[in-house]
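Late entry, evening session. Most of the bench is empty. Finally got around to the prediction I had been postponing all week. Sequence below, unchanged from the version circulated by S.P.
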Amino acid sequence: MAKQTVSEKMVELLNKAIARELQVAIQYMWQHVIAIGFDGAVVSPELKSIAITEMKHAEAIAERLNYLGGIPTTKPSPIELGTDARSMVKLNIKAEEEAIDMYKGIIKLAAEEGDVTTKYLFEGILKDEEQHDDYFTTLLEK
């Protein structure tokens, strides 16, 4: 059975998604390591867990892109750590909101291109990103 043909736009978007997932995996893991004080103790374990989830997303997207005949990027988007727990959370909300917007676009394009598997993959990832966004925004409300 032949592999599905993928558009250049989809290759570009999947590589942007990989770069973004690598970015936040590194960003959240380093934030987990450097978070200090009471606020740091609150967010540190969850940051580690989310970082691992984000790395799994990067792997899944890279596997999909490879299957589609593209070459997955190895370069993360720019990493922003923040200086304290509050600034970290604000940066993370921004990153999650950008991902949510991008992934909705990928889902739409995948549907237009008849790529059910990519659409399904990103629907699952989108659910995770929305949960991460909810976690971070809830932290700022407290």
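Two things to note before I forget:
The chain has a mean pLDDT of 92.
The chain has one domain: 8-71+81-141.
Will write this up properly tomorrow.
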